[in-house]
GRAS family transcription factor (Salix suchowensis), 171 residues
Amino acid sequence: MYRLKNLPDDTVVVNSPRDDVLKLVKKINPDIFLHGVINGSYNSPFFDTRFREALFHYSAFFDMLEANAPREDRERLMFEREMIGRDAINVIACEGTQRVERPEPYKQWQTRNLRIGFRQVPLHQSIIKRVKNVKHDYHKDFIVDEDGQWILLGWKGKIIHAISAWKPAQE
């Protein structure tokens, strides 16, 4: 989950490795393919657009940590440095094949999955209810929502993660 964002996309190579991986998953013919994505719009080839979107995306993480973890917490510091910081630097400082952080919005992944030959599996409302109930134990600004058979997770209006279930369509 969440690793397809590191594959080169259509802006880097003509034949998308993302499509190739999805075709391979379809060929394997799993009972269920859980697709978890970083919902990001910071994959623009134009620096200004990419920087603005990355700032909006990563500031949500830092804001979330500020509201939920003490600044001196070792795990927070490691997460900020090793996960958020490393990814943000890659998005902002690297171009071409050097930039490996290339997320797509979940709606774009949905279109890609359908084009490859997957069909989305409806979410069980009991699971949605359980996930939404867990949210009550956390900060009020966490978001748990659903859209078109995607479970959406976010912070203060910013959707950060999206998860859905897929099956290969019968041909």
Summary: The two ends are 26 Å apart (CA to CA). The mean pLDDT is 90. The longest helix spans residues 47-68. DSSP finds five helices and five strands in the chain.
